[in-house]
């Protein structure tokens, strides 16, 4: 298994790579100390099984990192790492396109098991209730949440983000998060294609 860890604490990255290598012989972990470095490494290593993004990542947070990787390297599975293992953070990670969540309090064996699930195309979110995740069934398309469907309907009517935010009573940044999640869920490259796919599926 080949992983990329994006964490701005070099000592943690080195220790994490060494520890995982000890419990999973043959596992290779590349380290990047910034999001930009990680994105560049992903270009140089197209055979990555997954990228692990730390939630506290300098001026950015890991949720933004997940979105950036999803935009530039959608074929690579994404995992958020954090010392905070709250359901809301896990759900936010999933909404941003993550396939898994690792808590820094987990044992190495638990991390290894979760990473295997993600590398095999599954989801690994620990204690996050299944109801908090979009339903993803084998052979079926992922289903948007109720709020995402509301955003989608307004998008289909040509409304800009600012107007959508006003009509739904949410922040414009939240609208952008929902759209990014929808792009990942439905495999669309841009807003126009997103609406086309949504119409094909009978969602709008």
Automatic annotation (TrEMBL):
<dbReference type="InterPro" id="IPR011006">
    <property type="entry name" value="CheY-like_superfamily"/>
</dbReference>
<feature type="modified residue" description="4-aspartylphosphate">
    <location>
        <position position="54"/>
    </location>
</feature>
<dbReference type="InterPro" id="IPR000792">
    <property type="entry name" value="Tscrpt_reg_LuxR_C"/>
</dbReference>
<protein>
    <submittedName>
        <fullName>Response regulator transcription factor</fullName>
    </submittedName>
</protein>
<keyword id="KW-0597">Phosphoprotein</keyword>
<dbReference type="InterPro" id="IPR001789">
    <property type="entry name" value="Sig_transdc_resp-reg_receiver"/>
</dbReference>
<dbReference type="InterPro" id="IPR036388">
    <property type="entry name" value="WH-like_DNA-bd_sf"/>
</dbReference>
<dbReference type="Pfam" id="PF00196">
    <property type="entry name" value="GerE"/>
</dbReference>
<dbReference type="GO" id="GO:0000160">
    <property type="term" value="P:phosphorelay signal transduction system"/>
</dbReference>
<dbReference type="InterPro" id="IPR016032">
    <property type="entry name" value="Sig_transdc_resp-reg_C-effctor"/>
</dbReference>
<dbReference type="Pfam" id="PF00072">
    <property type="entry name" value="Response_reg"/>
</dbReference>
<feature type="domain" description="Response regulatory">
    <location>
        <begin position="2"/>
        <end position="119"/>
    </location>
</feature>
<dbReference type="InterPro" id="IPR051015">
    <property type="entry name" value="EvgA-like"/>
</dbReference>
<dbReference type="InterPro" id="IPR058245">
    <property type="entry name" value="NreC/VraR/RcsB-like_REC"/>
</dbReference>
<feature type="domain" description="HTH luxR-type">
    <location>
        <begin position="137"/>
        <end position="202"/>
    </location>
</feature>
<keyword id="KW-0238">DNA-binding</keyword>
<dbReference type="GO" id="GO:0006355">
    <property type="term" value="P:regulation of DNA-templated transcription"/>
</dbReference>
<dbReference type="GO" id="GO:0003677">
    <property type="term" value="F:DNA binding"/>
</dbReference>
């Amino acid at each position: 298994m080949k992983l990329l860890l994006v964490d701005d604490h070099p000592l943690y990255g080195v220790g994490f790579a060494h520890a995982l290598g000890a419990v999973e012989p043959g596992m290779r972990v590349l380290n990047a100390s910034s999001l930009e470095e990680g994105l560049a490494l992903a270009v140089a290593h197209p055979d990555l099984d997954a990228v692990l993004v730390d939630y506290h990542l300098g001026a950015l947070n890991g949720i933004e990192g997940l979105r950036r990787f999803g935009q530039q390297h959608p074929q690579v599975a994404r995992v958020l790492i954090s010392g905070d293992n709250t359901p809301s953070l896990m759900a936010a990670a999933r909404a941003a396109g993550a396939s898994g969540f690792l808590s820094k309090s987990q044992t190495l064996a638990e991390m290894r098991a979760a990473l295997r699930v993600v590398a095999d195309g599954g989801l690994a979110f620990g204690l996050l209730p299944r109801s908090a995740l979009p339903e993803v069934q084998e052979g079926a398309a992922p289903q948007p949440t109720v709020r995402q469907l509301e955003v989608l309907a307004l998008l289909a009517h040509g409304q800009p983000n600012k107007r959508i935010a006003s009509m739904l009573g949410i922040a414009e940044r939240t609208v952008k998060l929902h759209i990014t999640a929808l792009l990942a869920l439905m495999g669309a490259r841009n807003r126009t294609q997103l609406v086309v796919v949504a119409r094909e599926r009978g969602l709008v």
